[in-house]
Amino acid sequence: MTETESAGRRIDTSRPHPARVYDWFLGGKDNYPVDEELGRRITSMQADAPRHARANRRFMERATRVVLRETGIRQFLDIGSGIPTEPNLHQIAQSVAPDARVVYVDNDPIVLAHAKALLHGTPEGATRYVQADAREPERILEGAASVLDFDRPVALSLIALLHFVADEDGAHELVDTLVDALTPGSCLVLSAMTADFDPENVRKGIAAYTASGVTLVARSHAEIGRFFKGLDLMEPGIVSLTDWHPSAGEDAEEGGPVSLYGAVGIKR
């Protein structure tokens, strides 16, 4: 049995998975009826939920370009990478810097089943996938060290991950462990859900996820700021994703604020 076949047999289609619901919001095909059911339940309460998912994806794309341009970083550790959706982070990074090295991390078997799609990079660079839970930072760092040189700056990407990890489940300890392993000049790229802009609809979305057995946490601007303690925030700081360097690419999302904050912090 191949690793991909084994992963396929381990996929639990009896309950929704955040990565597959996100894929449904983005119009992807790597989801199951249980994921679509939750996605439709959420959009019935929050019609622009798919726009929020697109804004999150485009924040990742813009942040990757800005980090490459303004910091010179050529190594990326993307935790909670999710189901491949083009353009993927390594495609963006290696289109600018062909020698960029990217490690993706996820624990969803369906992501593993599609991991080969993540491994086609440039000959000059490197692209790898590590199967691990985000709450196992030491294991992640050990696996990534075969590709990334942690004596040189690394961009740590935690895109739409931390709202699935509650504070009492170690969200801050997870970030602290990962950031502590990075050398000065590295950066943290983060997006996370908030109820600051649309509390009622966010509350309904949290209830829908919770009823399906999925942890979902909304954090305030100040609470998200705690993840960046000791880091220098890149302008414009912690803002709604649509307000973070909206001119950094033609793919910037239009419309008003979305219920996710995004920011990039530099380790000095």
Give a short synopsis of this structure.
The chain is an alpha/beta fold and 268 residues long. Helix content is 38%, strand content 16%. It contains ten helices and eight strands.
Question: What's the topology here?
Answer:
Layout: H1 3-10, H2 18-25, H3 33-45, H4 49-71, E1 75-79, H5 89-96, E2 101-106, H6 109-113, E3 126-131, H7 137-144, E4 155-159, H8 171-180, E5 187-193, H9 199-211, H10 221-225, E6 231-233, E7 239-240, E8 260-267
Helix pairs in contact: 2-3, 3-9, 4-5
The stretches of 5 or more residues where confidence is low (pLDDT under 50) are 1-9
Number of helices: 10
Helix and strand content put the structural class at alpha/beta
The mean pLDDT is 89
Helix content: 25-40%
Instruction: Tell me the strand percentage band.
Output: 15-25%
Distance between the termini: 47 Å
What is the name of the CATH class? Alpha Beta
**Can you tell me the CATH topology?**
Rossmann fold
List SSEs in N-to-C order: HHHHEHEHEHEHEHHEEE
Give me the CATH superfamily.
Answer: Vaccinia Virus protein VP39
* Backbone shape: globular
| CATH architecture group name | 3-Layer(aba) Sandwich
Radius of gyration: 17 Å
The total of beta strands comes to 8
Count of structural domains: 1
Largest sheet: 8 strands, mixed
